[in-house]
Amino acid sequence: MENQFFDTEDVNTQKDTQVEVQYLISENKFIFLSIISSGLYPIWWSYKAWRFYQQKQRLDIFPALRALFAVLFLISLFERTLVFAKTKGYQSNYSPILLFLGIIVFSLLSYLPGPMWLTSIISAAFFMPAFNALNFAKRNSAELVIVEQTNFNIRQYILIVLGAMVWGLFFVALYLERSGYNFEY
């Protein structure tokens, strides 16, 4: 796979002022935020990744639309990320198509009945190779300003609170259903 997505001539030792500060979170935070948001956090990560590429490579794209319609753009995002990471010395490898298929298959599990739909949250795990590759590439890019985020920010705390409320309601409903409570009016 040739550098079709990343122009290596673009790399220099000066800070790229066109790219906003990149806040990096750990793998554990990504997993936690994915679970607490019932698998929605990877959509936000996709948006931020596309926004990064829009700024870095001066792409004429709409990152929000690419994140919302991820089913159309995830393979290209994963490919672009792998190529970018490889230019920064990334040694690992992954198949963008297999990651995409894993996301699709496990996302479809959300149609299972009862609490079995919870297995669909595993789909977030298929984002991990690309997440790690992009974090590696950003950390190894002298032209980027990165901040390792050790604590949650305000938006993440809001997500945690809202997610905890949704999960709480889910478990209360599950308990009431198991104890024979009739939800009909």
Notes on the structure:
The chain is mainly alpha-helical and 185 residues long. It is 54% helix and 3% strand. The model is unreliable at 1-13 (pLDDT under 50). It is built from seven helices and two strands; from the N terminus they run βααααααβα. Helix 4 (70-87) packs antiparallel against helix 5 (96-108) and helix 4 (70-87) crosses helix 6 (128-139). It has a two-stranded parallel sheet. The chain has one domain (19-151).
State mean pLDDT (0 to 100 scale).
90
Strand order of the largest sheet: 1-2
Radius of gyration: 19 Å
Query: How many domains, in number, for the residues?
Result: 1
Biggest beta sheet attributes: 2 strands, parallel
Structural class: mainly alpha
General shape: elongated
Determine the number of helices (DSSP H or I, runs of at least 4 residues): 7
Low-confidence stretches: 1-13
Number of strands: 2
Proportion of residues in helical segments: 40-55%
- First-last Cα distance: 59 Å
What percentage of amino acids are in beta strands?
under 5%
Question: What is the chain-wise order of helices and strands?
Answer: EHHHHHHEH
Keywords: Membrane, Transmembrane, Transmembrane helix
Organism: Pedobacter helvus
Protein name: DUF4234 domain-containing protein
Transmembrane segments: 30-47, 67-85, 92-111, 117-137, 157-176
